[in-house]
Write a structure and sequence with these properties.
11 strands, mainly beta, 4-stranded antiparallel β-sheet, 7-stranded mixed β-sheet
């Protein structure tokens, strides 16, 4: 089993910054990718950013240039630096860990951006 624990959400004014952290632990042999998804009320969960073990990254178009994903492979930890936040970034952010044979999710952390 794999445990995924997120931290770092909160309330911030538009234009501000937040940094999310996610740590994976447990029965992990190899991680393919770690990433962040978000789900706003009444909407589907969507990919925000993802980073692969070799360092390649994917970003949603809506966050390019504002969000930066990074990873500490030795500690199975991923970070999401969110700058220039907008009210439309408000959502529950979920960490995802892909270990090739399965996907694991964190419990989610709320990010609220006030206008």
């Amino acid at each position: 089993q794999v445990q995924v624990v997120e931290s770092g959400g909160g309330l911030v004014q538009a234009g501000g910054s937040l940094r999310l952290s996610c740590a994976a632990s447990g029965n992990i042999f190899s991680i393919n990718s770690m990433g962040w998804y978000r789900q706003a009320p009444g909407k589907q969960r969507i990919l925000v950013a993802r980073i692969f073990s070799g360092g390649a990254t994917n970003y949603a178009d809506s966050v390019k240039g504002r969000f930066t994903i990074s990873r500490d492979n030795a500690k199975n930890t991923v970070f999401l630096q969110m700058d220039s936040l907008k009210p439309e970034d408000t959502a529950v952010y979920y960490c995802n860990v892909d270990i090739f044979t399965a996907n694991y999710w964190g419990q989610g952390t709320q990010v609220t951006v006030s206008s």
